[in-house]
Design goal:
Layout (H helix, E strand, L loop, with lengths): L2 H12 L15 E2 L14 E2 L20 E5 L5 E5 L3 H10 L1
Antiparallel strand pairs: 1-2, 3-4
């Protein structure tokens, strides 16, 4: 299991979703292009899909994106928090 898998499972757990969904092929995460292994990559982004059947309005143009950070705590566990600043969240989405 790699860091991408661990981050996805941490997010699923924080969203009260079963973490085994990661292996079931329910979600198809899109990860940023890999960087050179020579770079010490401190962060990366993952865009998981959503299940449109869970939405009241299936028009994805009307869907508000959410940005969550997954960080490694000093004890090694992964901690997930939604970005609390709406401007920062909007800027991140626009860059993607």
């Amino acid at each position: 299991m790699d860091e991408f898998d661990n981050a996805i499972k941490a997010y699923l757990a924080s969203a009260n979703r079963p973490v085994d969904e990661a292996e079931q092929g329910i979600h198809y995460p899109h990860m940023e292009p890999f960087q050179s292994p020579d770079l010490q990559q401190k962060s990366f982004h993952i865009v998981p899909d959503i299940e449109k059947d869970m939405l009241d309005d299936a028009d994805l143009g009307n869907t508000e994106p959410e940005v969550h950070r997954v960080r490694r705590h000093k004890d090694g566990t992964l901690v997930v928090n939604r970005v609390g600043n709406p401007t920062e969240e909007k800027n991140f989405v626009e860059k993607m």
